[in-house]
């Protein structure tokens, strides 16, 4: 069994949960915040049997779209940047950032 940790944009989250659920995957949805943009995103925990892993990845790839966003705030301000005026920078936020972990044990009580 594997655990997928999928960080996706809020705009895609609800369609992705619906698509995964309708294909029989279990999903937990968490409200999260990206470190760079400091904006909300969504993290899904998806536990999948090895034989269904490719199917889950395909659903994520199909539903999640990459988009351009404007970052107006630097992620970190150093002391010498006290009077720094942030200027907007365009970044491409991915469709999904997915981590795949091996699950040692899975139990439900
Ligand atoms: P954020 O950290 O808010 O990053 C949003 C987008 O900003 C990133 O999209 C990337 O295009 C850009 N970006 C991030 N750090 C940057 C930097 N130091 N300089 C210039 N541009 C930068 P994605 O790479 O698609 O990431 C989307 C979200 O996925 C991230 O939101 C973060 O919440 C998560 N993420 C991405 N890589 C991660 C990692 N290695 N570990 C944990 N979370 C990650």
What does this structure look like?
This protein has a single domain (2-74, 85-102), classed as Alpha-Beta Plaits, CATH 3.30.70.120. A hairpin with a 6-residue loop joins β2 and β3. By secondary structure, it is of the alpha+beta class. The longest helix has 13 residues, at 10-22. The protein has helices at 10-22, 53-63; strands at residues 2-8, 26-33, 40-48, 67-71, 89-93, 96-102. It has a 4-stranded antiparallel β-sheet. Strands 4-5 form a two-stranded antiparallel sheet. It is 22% helix and 38% strand. It contains 2 helices and 6 strands. The model has no long low-confidence stretch (mean pLDDT 92). It starts with a strand and ends in a 7-residue tail after the last strand. Bound molecules: ligand 2BA.
Key descriptive features of the protein:
Alpha-Beta Plaits; elongated; 4-stranded antiparallel β-sheet; binds ligand 2BA; 2 helices; 109 residues; alpha+beta; 22% helix; 6 strands
How many distinct beta strands?
6
Subunit organisation of the chains? single chain
Distance between the termini: 18 Å
H/I helix tally: 2
Overall form:
elongated
- Major sheet attributes: 4 strands, antiparallel
Radius of gyration: 17 Å
Unreliable runs: none
- Estimate the helix proportion, in percent: 10-25%
Bound molecules: ligand 2BA
